[in-house]
Design brief:
Its cofactor is [4Fe-4S] cluster. This is Methylthioadenine synthetase. Pfam families: Radical_SAM, UPF0004. By secondary structure, this protein is of the alpha/beta class. Helix 12 packs parallel to helix 13. It contains 13 helices and 18 strands.
Length: about 425
């Protein structure tokens, strides 16, 4: 029996690609195992977005090798692409596979005529792909909600970001393929699909006849049978009035926006190469809130960018404290070799950076709790998850506006779309809901 183990670090695009590799192997007679020591092949899909993510990727590789030294180890993903020599030096790593060849991993393992030694080592430490790569049929994975990668790569080249080098230029899944994948996932019983990409809002800009992300959303509203789609992340300048209005008018688009801000200081934003200012961002958030008062808005914040003064940090904190946002994802600045910001002076001292991240995360917790409490007594569409809550044994539901609720009920409710009342919050701060029939 062919047994494989796969682990994923980093973003939703990585998760989609790991699920795609796993699905292809399973469809061809392989068995996925959750115990590393049982596998004959172990695949590590790495991340490089921060130095810490790269270190964690190497730690995951070494941990697997210690646990199962006899397994064949294949390493792919962004860290494998940007620092292949470093990854390849780890003893017992059998193959290092860049983004251009990672879609061959399953094919190579399945073929009796090929060995994993035939997988090519990355020729360059940056991605040169120009064509979109996806999986056929659509990726299902082991989640109640499915990921669908509709776009890959990025042309923005923000001064701190390694991702455009790791992933290459922006490229999009054709419209008819998006619709075909959504239809397939609908047939397989999925009620929610998460539209994901490296620069999701840039979908269609690379086509010979340019299309927009708004065009895609309109077509999904008109033609897709899927119950609902969720936008994984979208840049501020790509959330148009039309997209806000479309989401407000059509339940198929979740009332949830995840928006990368990065800094609430105009000088830092300019130095980062971000194409908006804090006034634009404030107006956008207020517009979404006015149009969709119950919508979730998650914000990415990058702390400690070179030159970030106490005043710049305070401006960021004050901006976010004064806006109706729902949660924060806080990241410390990580100098990435090959990016302009790697050589920027005026680095923030580690101790100060740690304090700023802690303060911003505390604000994020306050915002999340206020958002949760503000939705008690409200009714939302929700998807009941396949996996029950480990602690309570209760069902879990994810609402359209990204609340997680504990729900009483039998297994017949699993994977179903229900209307749900946000009923209460318990002593441990967990929301409870009541399905409405």
């Amino acid at each position: 029996m062919n047994l494989f183990y796969i682990t994923t670090l980093g973003c939703k695009v990585n998760q989609y690609e790991s699920n795609g590799i796993a699905t292809t192997l399973i469809n061809n007679g392989w068995t996925r195992v959750e115990a590393v020591e049982k596998a004959s092949v172990c695949i590590v899909n790495t991340c490089a977005v921060t130095a810490r993510a790269a270190v964690q990727s190497r730690q995951a590789i070494r941990s697997i090798i210690r646990t199962n030294p006899g397994a064949k180890v294949i390493v792919t993903g962004c860290h494998a692409q940007t620092e292949p020599d470093l990854v390849g030096k780890i003893e017992h790593v059998h193959s290092v596979v860049g983004h251009g060849d990672k879609f061959k991993i399953a094919e190579t393992l399945i073929s009796p005529d090929q060995g994993i030694d035939s997988l090519p080592f990355p020729e360059k430490s940056y991605c040169t792909l120009t064509q979109f790569q996806g999986f056929e049929p659509a990726v299902t994975g082991n989640m109640t909600r499915a990921y669908l990668k509709i776009q890959d790569g990025c042309n923005a080249f923000c001064s701190y970001c390694i991702v455009p080098y790791a992933r290459g230029r922006s490229r999009s899944m054709p419209m008819d393929e998006v619709l075909a994948h959504l239809a397939y996932l609908h047939e397989k019983g999925y009620k929610e699909v998460i539209l994901t990409g490296i620069h999701t809002g840039a979908w269609g800009a690379d086509f010979p006849e340019k299309r927009s992300f708004l065009d895609l959303l309109k077509t999904i509203v008109e033609k897709s049978p899927i119950h609902r789609v969720r936008i994984s992340s979208i840049e501020p300048i790509e959330i148009s009035d039309e997209i806000i209005g479309l989401a407000a008018d059509h339940a198929i688009i979740c009332d949830h926006f995840h928006i990368p801000l990065q800094s609430g200081d105009d000088g830092i934003l300019k130095r980062m190469g971000r194409p908006y200012d804090t006034g634009y961002f404030r107006e956008l958030v207020l517009k979404i809130h006015e149009t969709m008062p119950r919508a979730a808005m998650g914000i990415d914040v990058l702390q400690g960018f070179p030159g970030e003064s106490d005043q710049a940090f305070e401006r960021t904190h004050a901006l976010l404290a004064g806006l109706p946002i729902s949660y924060l994802h806080v990241f410390p600045f990580s100098p990435r070799k090959g990016t302009p910001a790697f050589d920027y002076p005026d680095r923030v001292a580690p101790g100060i950076l740690k304090q700023r991240c802690a303060a911003m995360r505390a604000l994020g917790r306050e915002k999340r709790r206020a958002f949760e409490l503000g939705n008690i007594g409200q009714r939302f569409g929700a998807i009941i998850q396949e996996q029950r809550d480990r602690e309570t044994g209760m069902l879990k539901a994810v609402t359209s506006n990204y609340l997680t609720l504990l729900v009483k009920g039998g297994d017949d409710l699993k994977r179903s779309a229900v209307d749900i009342l946000v009923d209460s919050i318990d002593a441990r701060g967990r929301l409870h809901g009541i399905p409405l029939t």
